[in-house]
Design brief:
The structure holds three protein chains of three kinds. Chain A is mostly helical. Chain A has eight helices and two strands. Chain A folds into two domains: 135 residues, no CATH class; 77 residues, no CATH class. In chain C, a hairpin with a 2-residue loop joins strand 1 and strand 2. In chain C, helix 3 packs across helix 5, helix 4 runs antiparallel to helix 5 and helix 6 runs antiparallel to helix 8. The relative contact order of chain C is 0.17. The chains are: A mainly alpha, B alpha/beta, C mainly alpha.
C-alpha cells in the first residue's frame, strides 16, 4: 500500500509561501547539482540541514525518506571506487580501489543528501491541493495542473484496485513466475484497470462539466506573500548568492 | 481419508480488530463437510473480515484457524487451502480481469498447471453446467452486473473447489439472476458458506443460519 | 528508471528541461479537456506500474510502460509523464525537481516514437499486430535505457562503465515490456478498441502532418 507520502505538519517551513518554496528549491537544487567545489556543497549542506530541522520536529517521517535514499547511494560506494581509474589505494584480490573513485562517491553522497533535504523539506511539505494552487499561480498551464490533480487522485484508487485483483488472482491459485502466463495475467490486470478507470473517469468528467467545470479549479483563497515570506526570500537570496560566490569567485 | 472427517474450517477464539474498532471477539466457528451454512449480520459486523480470516487474507489478532484438519501457521499453509476453497467476492469487478469470459474461467485451471486445451475443456464444461455457454466469447468488461456475478461464480467453480465462500452473492442482482444463482447453489454437491444480510435468500439456500453479532456467532436453526 | 538528482551535468539537465518543456507544450496543445481524465489515469497507471514487482528469472523488475503510454496518448505522453515523475519524486524521492526534465525526456521521447511506430507499421494479421506491439514495448524501454545511459556517460566520462552496465541490465526488462505491451494491446483490441489510435499508412499527406505537430490538434 502506498501511503500519502507528503510530509504534513506545522512548522515555519510549512507556513512559508508554497510558490516561494518551489522556486527556491528549484534554484537551490540546480546550483547544488552543477556545483563542483567541496566548500559550496558544505555550505549547501549547512543550509539544507538548517531548513530541515523545523520539518523534522514537526514530522519525523522525513528521517525515513533520508535513510531510504541513502541505501541507494551505498551502491555508488561499491561501483565507483572499483570502476574508476586512478591512484590505487587498496588492492582487493585483483580489484583496484581508486582514490578518485572514493572521492567522487563522497562528493556524490554529499550532493545527493543536500538535494534530498532541500526537496523533502521545501517541496514534499506542500500538500497536494496547495501544490496545485501554487503551480497555477506560478502560471503553469491549467491543463497540466488539472492533470496533476487527476493523476494524484487516481494513484490511490488504481493501486487499491490492483492489489485487490492481485489478491483475487492469488485466491485462484496464481503464483507469479517467469512465464508467459504470468506476463499475460499482469497485462490483463493492467488493461482491465485502465479500461475500467477510463470509463469511470469519463463519468466523473461529465459530472464535473454538469457542475460548470471549464478546466480550471477556482481557488477559494488567494495567495499573497506575507512579511515573513519576504524575510525568507531575503534569507534564500543570501544563501544562493553565497553558493554562487563560493563556487565561481576565484580564490 | 481423514480430511473428510475433520471439519473443513475450525476457528477458535478468534479476535480481530482494525485500528479503531474491535470487530471479532473470541469467535468460535466450525464448518463440516457437506454443510450448507448461511451467515447473517448487519453491515460492519465483520462478516467479510471473518471470510478473509478463513482464507488467510487477514491474520487474526489472536486465536487459531484450522482448515481441512490442519492448523494454519503461516501464509504457506493457506496456499493449499485457497486451492480447495472457492471465494466469491462481493464485487465481481474485483475478480474478473481477462478479456473474454472463457479466458477468465480458464485462468484458475491454468494456474493449477493444466494445459490450455484441458483448461479450455474444463471451462466449457463449467459454463455449460451453469447454462452460461452463450457468454463464453463475450468481453467480460461489457457484461451486465448480474452476468458478471454468474461468470465470477463460474471462474471459482472451474477450479472444482471443495468448499465455496460467497460474500454477499446477491447484492444488486435482479430477481432473474438471483434465481439463477439460487438454482446453481441448489445443484451443487459441495459445502458452502454464504454471507448475506437477506434472510429470505439464506433460508432458501442454507440448511443452517448463524448470526454474527457483537463479534460473536449466534446459531439459530 | 530514474536519474537521481546530483549525478548528471548541467548541459544534460538543461537539454532535458528544454526537450521536456517543448514536448509538454505540444502534448498539452493536443490534449483537449475531454481527454485530461484519460491522460491522468494513464499517468496514474504508469505510477502504479512502477510499484509492481514482476518476476523475471531469479530477480524481479518494475514495469515502465512508457511504450504503451505513448501508443495510447501520443504527444500527450509528455505531460502525463511529467506529472507521473513529479509525483514519484515527491512520494519516494525517485528523481527530483532538477532531473524532472531529463527523466521526462528519456521516457517521453521513446513514448512518442512508439506512437508513430505503432500507427505507421502496416500490419493486419493478429500475429503481426502482436509483433509490432512487442516492438513498441521493447523499444520504449530500449530507447529510454539508451537515453539514461547516454545522460550518465555525457555527464562524466568516468560513468561510462556504469552507463554500459545500466543499459545491459535493462535488456531483460526490454523483453518483459515488449511481452506485456503485446498482451496489453491485444487486451485493448478485444475489450475497448476505441482507446487505441487508428492505424495509418505512410503517405505524403501523413508526412506533411508529421511536420505540423505544432498545430493544435486533439488526440484521438
Amino acid at each position: 500500500m502506498i501511503e500519502d507520502s507528503f510530509l504534513d505538519g506545522n512548522s515555519i517551513i510549512h507556513n512559508m509561501d508554497p510558490r516561494l518554496r518551489i522556486i527556491i528549491a528549484f534554484i537551490f537544487s540546480f546550483l547544488i547539482s552543477i556545483s563542483q567545489q567541496l566548500p559550496t556543497l558544505l555550505l549547501g549542506l549547512t543550509v539544507a540541514i538548517l531548513i530541515s530541522f523545523p520539518v523534522y520536529w514537526s514530522n519525523h517521517r522525513i528521517q525515513k525518506k533520508i535513510i531510504f535514499v541513502n541505501k541507494f547511494i551505498l551502491l555508488f560506494w561499491i561501483f565507483l571506487p572499483l570502476t574508476m581509474d586512478g591512484q590505487p589505494i587498496v588492492l582487493l584480490g585483483g580489484l583496484i580501489v581508486s582514490k578518485e573513485g572514493i572521492w567522487l562517491a563522497a562528493i556524490l553522497t554529499l550532493k545527493m543528501n543536500v538535494l534530498l533535504l532541500v526537496l523533502t523539506s521545501l517541496v514534499v511539505t506542500i500538500p497536494i491541493s496547495l501544490l496545485g494552487k501554487a503551480l497555477q499561480s506560478l502560471k503553469l498551464p491549467d491543463k497540466l495542473v488539472v492533470l496533476l490533480l487527476f493523476t494524484y487522485r487516481y494513484i490511490f484508487i488504481l493501486e487499491q484496485e490492483f492489489r485487490t485483483l492481485q489478491v483475487a488472482a492469488k485466491l485462484r491459485g496464481f503464483e507469479p513466475a517467469t512465464n508467459l502466463h504470468t506476463y499475460r495475467t499482469y497485462a490483463h490486470m493492467t488493461g482491465m484497470l485502465l479500461v475500467r478507470s477510463i470509463t469511470k473517469a469519463k463519468q466523473l468528467q461529465q459530472a464535473m462539466v454538469c457542475r460548470g467545470f471549464t478546466g480550471r479549479f477556482h481557488s477559494l483563497s488567494d495567495m499573497a506573500l506575507k512579511s515573513v515570506d519576504w524575510m525568507w526570500l531575503g534569507f534564500f537570496i543570501c544563501c544562493i548568492a553565497g553558493l554562487g560566490g563560493v563556487e565561481w569567485i576565484p580564490r | 481419508m481423514d480430511t473428510t472427517v475433520a471439519p473443513i474450517f475450525e476457528l477458535e477464539d478468534i479476535c480481530f480488530s482494525y485500528p479503531e474498532v474491535q470487530v471479532l471477539e473470541d469467535l468460535q466457528f466450525s464448518m463440516n463437510a457437506g454443510e450448507k451454512l448461511g451467515l447473517m449480520g448487519s453491515t460492519g459486523t465483520g462478516k467479510t473480515t471473518l471470510l478473509h480470516i478463513m482464507i488467510g487474507l487477514l491474520i487474526p489478532t489472536s486465536g487459531t484457524v484450522a482448515a481441512f484438519g490442519k492448523t494454519m501457521n503461516s501464509e504457506k499453509d493457506f496456499v493449499s487451502v485457497r486451492k480447495q476453497a472457492g471465494f466469491l467476492f462481493q464485487h465481481s469487478d474485483q475478480q474478473l480481469f481477462s478479456p473474454t469470459v472463457l479466458e477468465d474461467v480458464a485462468f484458475g485451471p491454468l494456474n493449477s498447471g493444466m494445459s490450455s486445451q484441458e483448461a479450455k475443456e474444463i471451462s466449457w464444461q463449467t459454463l455449460r453446467s451453469l447454462k452460461l455457454e452463450d457468454l463464453a466469447d463475450r468481453v467480460t468488461h461489457r457484461l451486465s452486473g448480474g452476468q458478471k456475478k454468474l461468470v465470477a461464480l463460474a471462474t471459482v467453480l472451474s477450479m472444482s473447489p471443495k468448499v465455496l465462500l460467497l460474500d454477499e452473492p446477491t447484492t444488486g442482482l435482479d430477481p432473474v439472476t438471483k434465481n439463477h444463482v439460487m438454482e446453481i447453489l441448489h445443484h451443487l454437491d459441495i459445502s458452502y458458506l454464504i454471507v448475506s444480510h437477506h434472510l429470505d435468500f439464506l433460508q432458501q439456500t442454507s440448511k443452517k443460519i448463524i448470526m454474527l453479532e457483537h463479534g460473536r456467532l449466534i446459531s439459530n436453526q | 528508471m530514474h536519474i537521481a538528482e546530483g549525478i548528471v551535468s548541467a548541459p544534460v539537465l538543461v537539454t532535458g528541461i528544454g526537450v521536456a518543456t517543448a514536448g509538454t507544450a505540444i502534448g498539452l496543445r493536443r490534449l483537449d479537456y475531454n481527454h485530461i481524465a484519460e491522460a491522468g489515469i494513464l499517468s496514474a497507471c504508469f505510477f502504479v506500474a512502477g510499484l509492481i514487482q514482476i518476476p523475471i528469472g531469479p530477480a524481479s523488475a518494475h514495469l515502465v510502460l512508457n511504450g504503451l503510454l505513448g501508443i495510447l496518448l501520443g504527444w500527450a505522453a509528455f505531460p502525463a509523464l511529467v506529472v507521473g515523475l513529479l509525483l514519484q519524486a515527491l512520494f519516494f524521492q525517485f528523481g527530483g525537481l532538477t532531473t524532472l526534465g531529463i527523466n521526462t525526456m528519456n521516457l517521453a521521447v521513446p513514448a512518442v516514437i512508439c506512437r508513430y511506430l505503432y500507427v505507421y507499421i502496416p500490419v493486419s494479421t493478429r500475429k503481426w499486430k502482436a509483433v509490432s506491439a512487442f516492438l513498441c514495448g521493447f523499444s520504449g524501454v530500449g530507447l529510454a535505457s539508451l537515453g539514461l545511459s547516454g545522460s550518465l556517460a555525457f555527464s562524466e566520462e568516468n560513468f561510462a562503465e556504469v552507463a554500459a552496465l545500466v543499459f545491459l541490465s535493462h535488456i531483460p526488462i526490454m523483453f518483459l515490456e515488449g511481452i506485456i505491451t503485446a498482451f496489453g494491446i491485444s487486451f485493448l483490441t478485444k475489450v475497448e478498441p476505441g482507446l487505441l489510435p487508428a492505424k495509418k499508412t505512410i503517405s505524403v499527406p501523413a508526412l506533411f502532418q508529421f511536420f505540423t505537430i505544432f498545430r493544435k490538434k486533439e488526440i484521438s
